[in-house]
Structures are given as C-alpha cells and as structure tokens.
Amino acid sequence: MKKTIMVIVSILSLLVIGCTTMPSSTSPGEEVHIEESQVPSPNPGTVESMPPTPDPEQAEEDALDDSGDIGQEESASSDDTITLEQINALSSAREYLEVKAFSRDGLVDQLLYAKYPEDVSIYAADNCGADWNEQALISAKDFLEVKAFSYSGLIDQLVYVKFTADQATYGVDNCGADWNEQAEKAAREFLNVTSFSHSRLVDQLVSVGFTNDQAEYGVSKAGL
C-alpha cells in the first residue's frame, strides 16, 4: 500500500513538472517575428499634439536656400565692379570725344576698332557722359566746314554716321546754317568739277536736297 502511494505521488510530481517545463511552440534557434497586428496602434489624437521632429534634410535645404540668397546679393555687388579694361575703354572714349564728335554707335565702332571687346565698348559709350544731341550738333558743324549740305542732306549725313533721326534733326536745326549760302557753296563746288548749264545745275542742287528756291539762289550767286 505504501509503495502504491509513493508511485502515485511520483506520477503526480512528474505531471506537475511536465506542465511547468512545457516547451514553447518555437523550435530552438528559430527567429521570433513580431507581426504588424501585434504592435498596438497609436492613438491618432496623440500624434497631432506631439511637436514635429526636425527633418535634417529639410534643415539642410533651408540652409542652402539662405546661403543662396546671400550668394546672390554678393554676386549682385560683384557685378557692379568695374574692370580695368572698362576703365581704360572709358578713358579712350572720352579722349576720342575730345578730338571729334561721335554718335553713340559710332563711338562703339571706334572702340571696337581699337580692339576693345564689344561689351566693354558698349559700357564705355554708355558711361562716358556724352550728350548725343550735342555731339550731333558738333558733328553737323564739322561737316559744314568740309563741304556744303542742304538741310535734308545734312540730316542724312548724320544718320549715316549713326546718329538717330531725332539727334540728327536736333543737330541740323541748331547748327545755324544759312541754306541759301549752302546752295551757293554747293553750286560752286559742282562747277569746280565740271561744267553745267543754269537749269542743269539747279536740277543738280535739287537732287541733293536743296529746295528749288535755294537752288536758284545758289546757281545765280555762282554766276550762272
């Protein structure tokens, strides 16, 4: 009887031990994976109340934008810097204007002829301080010292040397020329080249822009 009780106790002990040491469903060495469904979902209300976490990439982009703005300001300042070649071209432009009158485009051409780059030549012409109306007036007077011109012929000459039509008109309107005297001078210049009849010389003067009255005056004063 005692033996029987001991056997029962032993069996019960084994059963208890077996229950407490029951192996898990995973095999030894097998990875344990946590399924997404096992992770508790966050409370949506708490996400909005949390302060945003700074994004390092966004912070870097913002820093680059700021530095770009600064760089643009510095670039704008550097764009205003005058180069030595611009200074030299500006000096040359002013020296040319002391010798003779130029239109703006004519002065650019002169600087290009002196081997300054186009952009430097334009800079110098635009910054030399010239009054182009005044230059047209000086140029008109210079041309009248060389040969005779009609009113319209002198405008055409100024436009030919690249003054604008308005600048040329200003120069001719203010040059103080007596167009009858210019017609006489032109008549004499033609007669120095070849012979003309009265009417043929009148026609010649009209063809270079003198009015018929001016041409008649000029031919008569020239002795025909």
Describe this structure in words.
The protein is mainly alpha-helical and 224 residues long. It has a domain at 178-224: Orthogonal Bundle (Arc Repressor Mutant, subunit A). Helices cover 69% and strands 0% of the residues. The chain is built from twelve helices and no strands. Helix 4 packs across helix 6, helix 5 crosses helix 6 and helix 8 (151-160) packs across helix 9 (165-173). The longest helix is centred in the N-terminal third of the chain and has 24 residues, at 56-79. It is elongated and about 65 Å long. Mean pLDDT is 79; it is low at 1-5, 14-54 and 69-78.
Question: Layout of helices and strands, plus pairs?
Answer:
Elements lengths: L1 H19 L23 H6 L6 H24 L4 H16 L4 H10 L4 H10 L4 H15 L4 H10 L4 H9 L5 H15 L4 H10 L4 H10 L3
- Spans of at least 5 consecutive residues whose pLDDT stays below 50 are 1-5, 14-54, 69-78
**CA(first)-CA(last) distance:** 176 Å
What's the CATH class of the domain at 178-224, please?
Mainly Alpha
What is the residue-averaged pLDDT? 79
According to CATH, the fold-level topology of the domain at 178-224 is Arc Repressor Mutant, subunit A
Based on secondary structure, the structural category is: mainly alpha
**Tally of DSSP β-strands:** 0
Number of helices: 12
Q: SSE order, as H and E? A: HHHHHHHHHHHH
What is the name of the CATH architecture of the domain at 178-224? Orthogonal Bundle
Overall 3D shape: elongated
Helix content: 55-70%
Proportion of β residues? under 5%
Largest sheet: none
Rg computed from alpha carbons, rounded to a whole number of angstroms? 50 Å
